[in-house]
Amino acid sequence: MNLEEKSKEVRRVFQELDREIKAFLGASQLTCLPGCGFCCSNPKVSASVLEFLPLAFDLYEKGKAEKALELLESKSDSDWCIIYKATSADGEKGFCSDYQNRGLICRLFSSSYRTNKAGRKEIITCKKIKSANPELFETAAEQVNIDMPIPSSSGTYAQLYNIDFQLTNDQMPINQAIRKALELVLNYCYYRDMEQQDPSESL
Fold first, then answer.
1. Using CA atoms, how far apart are residues 131 and 142, in angstroms rounded to an integer?
2. Are strands 121-124 and 94-96 parallel, antiparallel or unpaired?
3. I want to staple 84 with a disulfide (CB 3.0 to 4.6 A). Which of 40, 51, 75, 97 is the partner?
4. What pTM does this model have?
């Protein structure tokens, strides 16, 4: 697969995952708190390059890729994700400005499970959701081990590994992952467009 085909495959995985997440949220009623951006404000969130190819291609198609790359190059390791828009001074409140193109880590957190040493499913979520809805959380924690639908974190990552192991396996701070995805897409599109150019245009 070329880079564009890989991006389309990632988007296909995301679309299926979104359907699974919707089913889980509907069954559990466990959703992020309105306006909360606590997780997004953490600059140490790790991500892979592959999960941000759809964002990078979308930015390129909208003519925003180079501007986004310039913005990323001005950021330090202590800055949060560039598509997160904080609405509070401490960054703990805010919203995702490109929710459709958010990464895999952003989709899975609070809406997926991991398997513990005892072989039971554990919901991957944050303390804020647990403390705000303790009864809902306890019920969901039991029901996911019975019949409540919930996406598998490792299972979803396995699907990305099958698309491109290297671009999934290399985990890095989220802004670095976005930057590398943009660089790959810009390079790919430059050579793709050169190949598609009418030979008479170069005369």
1. 17
2. unpaired
3. 40
4. 0.90
pLDDT at 103: 95
Lookup: tokens for 42: 């953490």
Place of tokens 């809406």: 111
Angle subtended at Cα 130 by Cα 128 and Cα 135, rounded to the nearest 5 degrees:
140
**And the tokens for 169?**
């396996």
Amino acid symbol at 92: E
State how far Cα 60 lies from the chain centre. Answer: 18
Angle in degrees, 0-180, between the axes of helices 3-28 and 174-196, rounded to the nearest 10: 140
Give exposure, 132-171, as e/b (b: 16+ Cβ within 10 Å): ebeeebebbbeebeeebebbbbeebbebbbebbeebbeee
Q: What is the pLDDT of residues 8-19, one digit of tens each?
A: 999 999 999 999
- Identity of the residue numbered 117: K
Contact at 8 Å (CB) between 114 and 122? yes
Q: What are phi and psi of 38, to 5 degrees?
A: -55, -45
Dihedral of the alpha carbons of 6, 45, 132, 125, in degrees to the nearest 10: 50
Strand partners, 171: 48
Task: Give residue 50's Cα distance to chain centre.
Answer: 10
Using CA atoms, how far apart are residues 4 and 160, in angstroms rounded to an integer?
Answer: 14
